[in-house]
Amino acid sequence: MTSVAIRVFAVALSSVLLAACSSSELPQIAPPVAPGECGDHTPYRNAYFGDLHVHTAYSFDAYLFGNHVNDPQIAYDFAKGERIRLNDSARGERYVQLQHPLDFAAVTDHSEYVGEVRMCTDPEQSPLAYHDPLCLQFRTAQPGDSVGFLVWGLRLTRPYYGRHLFCVYGDCPAAAQSVWEQTVRVTNAENAPCRFTAFNGYEYSPSSDGSRMHRNIIFRGNEVPQAPVSYFDAPEPIELFRRLNDVCRPEDGCEYLSIPHNSNLSHGRLLWADPERFSDPQYVADLREISRLNPVLEMMQIKGASECKLGLGGSTDEECEFEQVRAKPLCCDAANGITEHCVDPLPSVPFRGEPNCHEVCPGDRPRAFQNEPDNSQGCLASHDFLRGAFLKGMAAQKTLGFNPNRYALIGSTDNHNAASGDTEEAGGPGAVLGWEGAHGGQDDDPEERFDVLTNIGRITNPGGLAGIWAEQNTRESLYAALMRGEVFATSGTRLRLRLFAGDYPSGLCNEPDERLKRIAYEQGVPMGGDIPLTAAGIPRFLVQVLADRHPLQRTQIVKLWVDAQGQGHERIFELGRYAEPAAVDEQCGVRFSVPPESRMSACHEWQDPDFDPAQAASYYARVFEDRSCRWTGHLCAALQRSGELHCADQPQHPCCTSGEDAVIKVQQERAWSSPLWYAPGSP
Amino acid sequence: MVIATLVRAGVAMSTPDRGPTAWVKLRAGPELLMIALGVLAFAVDALRVQSSLPPVPGEDRRIEVPAAEAPRQTPLALADDAVGQRGGEAETARWIRAEVLYREALRLGLDEGDVIVRRRLVQKMEYLLEGMSAVPEFSPAEVERYFHTHAERYRQTQAYTFTHRFFSSERGIDAATARAREALSQLRDGTALAETLGDPYTDGNRHGQMPAARVLQRFGDAFLQGLDRAPAGEWSGPLRSRHGVHLVRRERTHPSRLPSLDEVRATVVRDLVDELRRRQVEQRYGEIEARYEIARR
C-alpha cells in the first residue's frame, strides 16, 4: 500500500514539475519507475516476441549442414538486429538480417555430441581425436553429406550407441562441459534486463526409430547445471527430469522448464499417455511430473505446424493443411469421405512398449513425409497434433484428475544458421531471393529448394515465433508467463493476440483501453488459465488482435471437448470476418478486397452458444492475416524477375505448373492463442 | 587404421551395455542391416579419406555404388531415412548419373578455372582456418585501447519515453482522427483523464527509452517524426501509425550518447576477441601464403 501511495505522489509531483517546465530547454523528467521496474512495465502486460529454439555451429547437424562459423554469440547478435553471414552459395556471399530485432531468444544446441563436435573442430582438445577419420570426415563433409548423417544421426536412434568412438582419445564430456560453459557465459552476457532477454537452454534430442521426441530445456536464470543432461545420459523423459531435478534445484536458484516440439514427427510417442497404465501409480506420478515441467508446446516451427491434420481424428478443418510436413494418410482424406478409421479412440496395442502406431488407417501404411517412400515407422496418431493431444488429455483427466497434455502454445524456428527468429518470408533487409533457408549450405541452391524429396526443400517454412505477455522484458517476467501459459504462437508474423474469459459485462470492447484491460484481468483469466464459473453461469470471452504488417482477415475460436462416451469433438466458431482473402499475383503483389486500414486491429466478445456447465472444454483463438506470398512465392518471383526462369520455356517448373508438382506460393500467416480450460467444478 | 576403426566400431555397436535385451532388440529389427550399411558407408568413407592422394582424373573409371546411397540427408530425414530408407532404383540411378558426370568433368579438367568450384574450395579453407584459431589472450589495457579507438561503434541512439492512446481506424482514418482530436481537446480542457480515453489496444502503451529505430519499426515514420516534435509532458497528436491513430505524451527524449566502458564492457571484450581471432586467421593465412611464390606481372 505504501509503495502505491509513493508512486501516486511521484506521478503527481512529476506532473507538477513537467507542467512547470514544458519548454524543451528545461530539464525533462522521466515518469517514475519503481526499483526493478522497466520503463514499459505494466500490470496489464506487453507482448514480447522471440525465438526459444535456435541452433548454432555447436550442434552436430548444423555443422554438417555447413554452418561452421555461426556460434551462440552470432545467434544473439542476429536476434538484436545485426547482419550475419551464412554459407556462401554458388551465387556468392549470403547475408541475413532481421527487419525487426527480437525481444528475447534462447540458443538451444543439441546436447548430444556437443563435446564430440568440439573434439572434431579444435585440434588442441586432442590431436588424436582431431585426426580421427570420423572427425576428418565431419570437418570436410559437404553440406548434407549422407555419410555424415548416417554416422552421426543413426546413433541418436538408440540410446546405447552413446558417445562417439574417438572419445577414447580425449575427454568428450569435459569438452561438452566447456562448450556449455561458453554458451552460458555468452548468454548471460547478452541478457540485458528491460531491453533483451537471453535464456540459457539446450535441446534434448531422443530419436528412437526416427521418432522425434525432442524437448528444449529453458533455464530461468544464471544458475544452470554443470553440463546438460542428454539423451545418452537419460534415454527416457522421466529420467531426464529426475536427473535435471537433481542438478538444478530451486533452493540453489536453478529453475527450468521443458518445451516439447515436433510432436508431428514423433510417430505417436511424444505426447502419449497410455490409458492402460493409468492404474500404475508410478506411471501416473511420472506423467504428473512431466506435465508439471512441460507447460508449453512449440507447435509451429521450420518442420511444420502441429495444430491438427485434415482427416485425422475426423477433423474437417481445411486450415489444418497449413504447413504440414507429414503426408496426408489417404484413408483419412476427408475429401474422399473415408474418415471412420481415423476416429479416436482406437485400440491401443503397444508397439514395442510404445504407443500403438496403427491408430491411423488399419491396413494402410502411411508415409512419413510428403512424397517420401513408405516408411514402416511412419505412423501418425491424432495426439501428434495438439487438438488430438488436448482431447486425449481431457479424456485422461476424467481418470487421473489432471490433464497430462495441458500445454500452452508457442512457435519458434529451429533455425540451424544461428539466425534466431529469421521468419520473414520475403527475407530481411537486402534480401534478393526471399527467405534464405535455415540449414547452412544445404538450402543455398534455389532449384534444390523446390525439391520434394529433400527435407530442406519446399515443405520447410521459416518457422514461427513465440509471443509472451509479460509485465516487462526480463527473465523473471517472461519465465513466469511461460509457466502460467500466457503465451501465444505465430507462424512467424508479429501479430498480437489476447484471449480472456470471465464474468465480464457485455460491451467490453466499447470500453476505453485502460478500463478494458483492468476488467479483463480483474474479472477473468488470460490465456493458459482455468475459466472460472461465473455468476451468470456462462463465461464471456474476450479476443483482442493487433495486426503486424498485413491486415487481418478473420478471427476464430476453436472449441474442443470429450463427450460422455469418450468421443472427442472439435468445433470452430467465427468471431469476425473482415474481408474475403486478397488476390496475390505472380510477383507477390496483393489486391485487397477491403482497405487494410479498417482491419489492423480487432476486439471481439463471445459466448459459447452450446456452453454446458457440466461439460469440460478447451478453447483457443486463431487469427488469420490476409493472404501474402509464402517464401516459395517470393523465390519464384525473384527467379522470374532475374530472368533465370521463363515459364514459357519451362511450363513444368514447380513455380509455373498448376499440376500436382506445383509449389504452394501463397499463404495466410496466423497466430494461435494458448487455450483456456474449463472443467466443471473448477474454481 | 581403417581396420582398427572398423573393429572398434563393431565392438562398440555390438556391446550389449544395456544387457542381453539390448542385443536381442538389436538383432530383431532392420537396425542390423542399417548398422551394417552405416559401417560400410563409414568404411568406404574412411578409405576415401585415408587415401591422401587425390583421385587421378581419367584413370579411375570404376564407380562403386555405396549400398546406402540415399537422397541428401537432413535431421528431418535423419533417423527416418537412416532406419527405413531403401533408396529406390530411381534414386540410385540419379546418384550414378551424377557420379559419372562428376568424374567425367574431373577427367576433362572442367573443375579448373571454374569460379564456383574455386569459390567452394576457398570457402572450405576459410572455414578450416577459422576453426583452427584458439581463444586469444588480451589485457585490460587492450580492452580500453580498443574501446577508445572504436568508441563510435558503441554509441547509443536517440530514444524516447512516452505513452500513447489508440483510436481504431475500423471505421476509417478520418473518423479515428476526428475522435482523437476530440479526445485531445477534452484532455486539454481537463474534462477527461487519459485513463478514460482511447479504444482497446491489444498491446501495452507505455514505452521507456524506446530507441528511435524501434519506434520507427513499430509505429512508422510519421509517428516517429510527430513524437520527436511533440511537446514534452503533455498530450498531443493525432499521429498516424499503420494500426490507426494515436495521441502521444512524450515524457522525455534521451539524446544519443557515448556510454562509458563499464556500461558496454562485455560487448567490447567480445569485439576485441573477434578482432584478435581475425588476426590469427590472417597470420595463419600468411603462413600458407609464404609457402607460395607470388609472381606479379
Describe this structure in words.
Chain A: Residues 1-19 form the signal peptide. The complex is a heterodimer of chains A (683) and B (297). Chain A has 683 residues and is α+β, with helices and mostly antiparallel strands. Among the domains of chain A are: 2-32; 48-261 and 412-450, no CATH class; 542-673, no CATH class. Helix content of chain A is 22%, strand content 20%. In chain A, strands 1, 4, 5, 12, 13, 17, 18, 22, 23 and 24 form a ten-stranded mixed beta sheet that branches. In chain A, strands 15-14-16-21 form a four-stranded antiparallel beta sheet, with helices on one face. Chain A is globular and about 75 Å long. Chain A starts with a helix and ends in a 5-residue tail after the last strand. Chain B is built from eleven helices and four strands. Chain B has helices spanning 2-14, 20-28, 31-50, 75-84, 89-107, 115-132, 140-149, 173-189, 212-219, 221-229, 261-290, and strands at residues 159-168, 206-211, 235-240, 244-254. Chains A and B meet through helix 1, helix 6, helix 7, strand 14 and helix 13 of A and helix 1, helix 3, helix 4, helix 6 and strand 1 of B.
Which key terms come to mind for this protein?
heterodimer, A: 683 residues, alpha+beta, 10-stranded mixed beta sheet, 4-stranded antiparallel beta sheet, 22% helix, disordered N terminus, B: 297 residues, Chitinase A, domain 3, 2 domains, 11 helices, elongated
Secondary-structure topology with pairs:
The complex is a heterodimer of chains A (683) and B (297).
Chain A: H1 2-20, E1 46-54, H2 60-64, H3 72-79, E2 84-89, E3 92-96, E4 104-107, H4 114-121, H5 127-130, H6 133-140, H7 146-153, H8 172-190, E5 197-199, E6 201-204, E7 215-219, H9 237-247, E8 256-260, H10 281-293, E9 296-301, E10 304-305, H11 386-400, E11 408-411, E12 465-470, H12 475-484, E13 487-490, E14 496-502, H13 513-522, E15 524-526, E16 540-546, E17 552-562, E18 568-577, E19 583-584, E20 590-591, E21 601-606, E22 617-629, H14 631-641, E23 666-673, E24 676-678
Parallel strand pairs in A: 1-4, 4-5, 9-11
Antiparallel strand pairs in A: 1-12, 2-3, 6-7, 7-8, 9-10, 12-13, 13-23, 14-15, 14-16, 16-21, 17-18, 17-22, 19-20, 22-23, 22-24
Helix pairs in contact in A: 4-6, 4-8
Chain B: H1 2-14, H2 20-28, H3 31-50, H4 75-84, H5 89-107, H6 115-132, H7 140-149, E1 159-168, H8 173-189, E2 206-211, H9 212-219, H10 221-229, E3 235-240, E4 244-254, H11 261-290
Helix pairs in contact in B: 1-3, 7-11, 9-10
